[in-house]
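May I ask for whichever protein you like with its backbone structure tokens?
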Amino acid sequence: METKFKNVLITGGSSGIGAALAVYYATSGAKNIFICGRNKERLAKVVEECKKLGTKAESTIVDVTQKEDVRKWIDACNKKAALNLVIANAGVASLVEIEENIYKTFATNINGVMHTVLPAIELYRTRKAKEAPRAIAIVSSVAGYHGLPSCPSYSASKACVKAYGEAMRVELGRENIQMNVICPGFVVSGITDKNTCPMPFLMSGEKAANIIGSRMERNIGLIAFPWQMRFAVWVLAILPNFLSNYIYSKVPKKDACWGHEVL
């Protein structure tokens, strides 16, 4: 499928969903792909793969928790090619819920998303509504449907950006700016490599990117998959607390039980 998004920017593009999406858009006819991350070598490999597919691609080392650095990077990329799609994907998950890790998780998964989304909204608003597509995607997680005892800070941070994206979709829609929220289940990444718990319906980054990309083209507001995981967490979210608490109490405690992307 030929993509309508020709100039794409992705945070957390060195592995997992971010890297897979970069390759997906290179394969689908994007002209320019900009990715950032923290690992120079992995970023270089993704850029090389995109270039082999005939698209222009470049990477930059950016810490999404640093607001001004992210803003400057987005502005610089937009000057090179007017962005059509900005994907706030960078995220982390704590292996152990200690204070340092909790603060890092919230700083990356919430502030990092805001540092990406808000500059994108600003630059999109400088363009006329009838111009080329203007879209923003926030990568949340099915873990954001309900507070999970196995990963409190991760599920809470993902719930926050899920709610924000869903609310902003209505507001931005009035300005013809597309907003999509992506809630994957278990996807192969640096986080899942360290998980110690069962990961039902674990899928490859390529498969996840195909699902996300095709639904983004159709502007589906909430892109949650696989359906089995979405249904399971939805049921847990609507159960009375005493029932969900009872179910969680029967699940063995693990060190790391969720995640789909890493910086």
Remarks:
- Residues 7-249 form a domain with the Rossmann fold fold (CATH 3.40.50.720).
- Confidence is low (pLDDT under 50) at residues 256-263.
- Helices lie at 16-27, 40-52, 67-80, 99-124, 152-173, 205-217, 227-238, 241-249.
- The chain has one domain: 7-249.
